[in-house]
Amino acid sequence: MLFSEIYSAYYNAVAGIISLVLDGRADEKGIKEIVDEKAFSESFLTVLPALKSGRWQLIKPDMTTALSRTPSMPLTNIEKAWLKAVSLDPRIRLFDIDFSFLGETEPLFTPDDFVIYDKYSDGDDYESEQYKAVFRTILCALKEEKMLLIEYEKVSGKRMTVRSFPKSLEYSEKDDKFRLAASGGLYINVGRIRSCKITDGKKPEDTGNDNIRYKTVTLKVSERRNTLERCLLHFAHFEKTAEKTEEGYILNIKYRTEDETEMVMRVLSFGPLVEAVAPDSFRNLIIKRLKRQKSCGLF
Cβ neighbours of residue 232 under 8 Å, at least 6 residues apart? Predict the structure, then answer.
């Protein structure tokens, strides 16, 4: 893995501790705060003894160090190549990130290296200047916790204007679209927003899920071809539980009712390695879609 919180956590934590020592502000409280922030809370039991005992030979028992410069972690060539590849994705440019420091670095891969066959072809127009402006206004409102005045177009073509407090931006991999989740249970595809500006307004009280309805699907996951790991990665942003059985694994995934069609497509993407075992209503949706595919002569 090029970037990993797990593999780089201790390096960042120790670099922070050494910087604290060089500033003459090192004590156990400060070190614990750095470990909690950059590594894991229980790491304090390992990091501090390893430093103080000299096992890691970076900090002396009197909390001084032989180092004279603050540690730095320059990017490796492969990290730069990976970042260059990421910078070519039109979605990353929505965040207005400056990648000029990469210069003429060759990308590790390009968008042309991928053929995506399980995604709708009418995704959002990420290159549109209007889309970028709307997206960045939403981001600004999210960061500053501001109210938005939104004009958007419904599927029927009718235009609506609402004032709402943004809660999050969500991305659908299947639809290749971003969606704004806002107060009052409001969900709007960003591509349908015609204008958007920050306005005055008090942040509403948190009312939980804003009456969002959820369902849970139970999947039987095969042990073959590393399917469980792929499933956990694919459904990483969903609330879920997993358990081992004699025949493989059982995975329970909680999802929003309005996302049921996308969930059906996600499950089908694993083919015979994943079976929906409950509820019957979800199984019937799987069966219905498979029959439609068969009628088209797809298999």
Answer: 240, 242, 251
